[in-house]
Amino acid sequence: MTLIVPDAPANDAAFAKANLTPANVWTALPKATLTKVLLYHVVPGSLPASKVLPAKGQIRTLKTVLGRYIAVNQGATIFTTSGNTAGIMVRRSSSTSPRRTA
Questions:
Q1: What pTM value is reported for the model?
Q2: Residue 76 pLDDT > 50, yes or no?
């Protein structure tokens, strides 16, 4: 499985909008809701960065395990079906540290 994780600003905004904090997220949401939110960020298979990030100027569409789609551009910005965007962190196989995008 490959986890598509929004960067800190996007996570912070989503948490704030839902009145969540890292301390209460596990107990504030019903288990079914939390499971759905987490699985929305999972894509089947172990994908290297080259299979997540498309060529320059292109968009790659990834299907999550929930059957929803997210689109990713070469700059590591995701676009959700709801119209939201966020930068993501992509760990490249040739690097020991993730690539952070805005």
A1: 0.71
A2: yes
